[in-house]
Design brief:
Blueprint (H helix, E strand, L loop, with lengths): L1 H16 L5 H6 L3 H10 L11 H5 L24 E5 L4 H12 L5 E4 L18 E4 L2 E4 L1 H12 L10 H21 L3 H14 L4 H25 L5 H16 L12 H10 L6 H9 L3 H11 L8
Parallel strand pairs: 1-2
Antiparallel strand pairs: 1-3, 3-4
The structure holds glutathione (GSH).
């Protein structure tokens, strides 16, 4: 998904910088009522998103399980200042957010504009997520999570070769690649996904319109190539199979971690959270046995610890 999104955004970057009028000119040609809205939307500062993903998704799931305790670190181990540079719908960023939310680590979010990336100009590493912890940048979702986990649980260092590690690798090597072909499966699902991406991401008004339609079209074609690359013939079947593979791995336990989620539970939950209420996620829950675990995870992860500004 990441590479594919990168390609789509690359195409869009080129399209916006060459063949289309400069956004500002285009904005000026829009009717007054829309331009006043545009003025509000197109501030060049990174715009913190007012709806946390967790909040946005929580409305439709009936929570029937008893509330489980979250795992806040002891106050002396808690990082003081945590900032996540992200794209709202990026699966790797959502893995990190699930970890931070579950551990009640307060964090600010800087939504990166995927076209200009100006919010991460200071960084040599040009992908997201980047997490700054008390000023030190950490990169790569799995590394970020391991380093933070070791910091807040020094007594239980992440093991090199445990069951959780195997499934965390499965998330990065398999599960994320099944998602794009599903959420961009046909034109209506690609538009639904880009409606979500553009309404939660950091885009100017003009970019928002362009990205929604051009992005949906680009990703529709990119996802066909991804299917070939990852040998997927029926994308929904692959998604259902991945969901059932995960349920089998649980082997009757509430969580892979037993009575409480471990890093693999948080990784699977993190990458599924942005798609849960898209058509693909609804189909997945309706057609597989993953729903009960997902609902337990929602309860366990609870409220987002994101600091709203
Ligand atoms: N292995 C990295 C992958 C990160 C990644 O590929 N992020 C994507 C967004 S989902 C990205 O920043 N792509 C580059 C781009 O958008 O230009 C991780 O786990 O953090």
């Amino acid at each position: 998904m990441a590479r594919a999104q990168g390609l789509a955004f690359h195409l869009l970057r080129r399209a916006l910088s060459s063949s289309t009028p400069k956004p500002r000119l285009l904005v000026q040609s829009i009717t007054p009522s829309i331009s006043s809205y545009t003025h509000h939307q197109s501030s060049s500062r990174p715009r913190p998103i007012s709806l946390a993903l967790a909040g946005a998704l929580s409305f439709s799931v009936a929570i029937s399980t008893a509330a489980l305790a979250k795992e806040p670190p002891s106050p002396d181990l808690l990082p003081r200042n945590v900032v996540l540079y992200q794209y709202e719908a990026c699966p790797f960023c959502n893995k990190v957010k699930a970890f931070l939310d579950y551990h009640d680590i307060p964090y600010e979010v800087v939504e990166v504009n995927p076209l200009s990336k100006k919010e991460i100009k200071w960084s040599e590493y040009k992908k997201v997520p980047i997490l700054t912890v008390d000023g030190d940048p950490l990169v790569d979702s799995s590394d970020i999570i391991e380093k933070l986990s070791n910091r807040i649980h020094p007594e239980e260092p992440v093991l090199v070769d445990d069951e959780g590690k195997k499934w965390r690798r499965w998330v990065d090597d398999h599960l994320v690649h099944v998602l794009s072909p599903n959420i961009y499966r046909n034109t209506s699902e690609a538009l639904e996904s880009f409606e979500y991406i553009t309404s939660h991401g950091n885009f100017s008004f003009t970019e928002r319109l362009t990205v929604k339609y051009a992005g949906a079209a680009a990703m529709y074609f990119v996802s066909k190539n991804l299917k070939k690359k990852y040998n997927i013939t029926d994308e929904r079947a692959a998604l259902y199979e991945a969901a059932e593979t995960w349920v089998d791995a649980l082997d009757g336990r509430n969580f892979l971690g037993g009575s409480k989620p471990n890093l693999a539970d948080l990784a699977v939950f993190g990458v599924l959270r942005p798609i849960r209420h898209l058509r693909a996620g609804r189909d997945m829950v309706d057609n597989t046995h993953i729903g009960e675990w997902y609902t337990r995870m929602e309860t366990a992860v609870g409220e987002s610890s994101r600091i709203m500004s």
